[in-house]
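In keeping with the milestone schedule agreed at the kick-off meeting, the structural modelling team has produced records for the first pair of proteins. Each record is given below as a sequence line and a structure-token line. The laboratory manager (R.T.) confirmed that both were archived under the project's standard naming scheme.
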Amino acid sequence: MRLKGQILNDIKTAMKAGEKDRLKVLRLITAAIKQIEVDQRIVVEDDEAILGILNKMVKQRRDSITLFEQGKRQDLADIEIAEIDIIVAYLPEPLSDDKLDALIDAAIAATGAESIRDMGKVMGHIKSNAAGAADMGAVGAKVKARLS
């Protein structure tokens, strides 16, 4: 509950400081967490689950930025960029390419993967060790290239 508690404390701080844009984004984060809790009838306390929610929010905003820029609406794209900056502050540091390659090599060795059919095992191993610090789409492409 460490990350969830930090977000709730940051809401209070943003309210006291009058940071309306930051407060809006933090409330969006808590709303997304509450939506998962209501839909699945669980209490989200696990940091890994919250990191998944945050990663999904960042991905949605990146998709929106692309669409806004194609529609020549830079003003809306700037709002999305500012929201990403706030959300990313709660995510762990992304892994460097060297560390990611080392993690992929370790996962392939640990699972004994030899072909593309073993990709699921490797991805599961990486996902448990990366904990939101890597874009799993990019990781999947690298693993696929190594196992092919």
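The second protein of the pair:
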Amino acid sequence: MASPWLTPLRPIGRFGETLLDRVLCVAGAVGLSQAPEFYQQYLQRLGGHLDEALMQLARFQAVAHESDITLAELIATTRAQASVPVAKLGALIVETEARVKELQLASDALKGATLWERPWAFVRHVDTDIMAGTWSAFKPAVPVTLEGLVYAGAGMVLALAIYQGAVAWPARVAARKLRKRCARADLTKASTINPSRPAP
């Protein structure tokens, strides 16, 4: 037999758990449904960085063309100069080439990824600076696409799974232990008042 003072609290506990479930469902759905929009805004910013890097590389290629040499020869020539600023220019051209390849690879991978591949493609090719810039200027949007609805559903499931595993289940275990302790205390008290009823 549980203690009488616990009985009035049960409806309150059930109501609180139901309310928390709903709040977490909404929070999870709204939160994760923004992933496709963030993805699109990240792609736009990535494209801007790629365009800028391509323009810079095109200027170096134009210099090489006007000098009747290849870009590789321009790099070798500048890096071989004794003048430090000129030598650093060669290193800058190399860095620009590498940056273009990196951004182009990321852009192609992200644009070509399917709905289910996008999270993994994003993790593999994410640029932390571009991601930080995207987040600082991120504008939430109402999900109206199938992708947005899929992410909203996944957000609900994820939020409920975290809640059940981290909050609800431990709370139920603690409540059962509390009820058992209360029942033992009640039996002990009853056996003290009525010695004919042995305590467990």
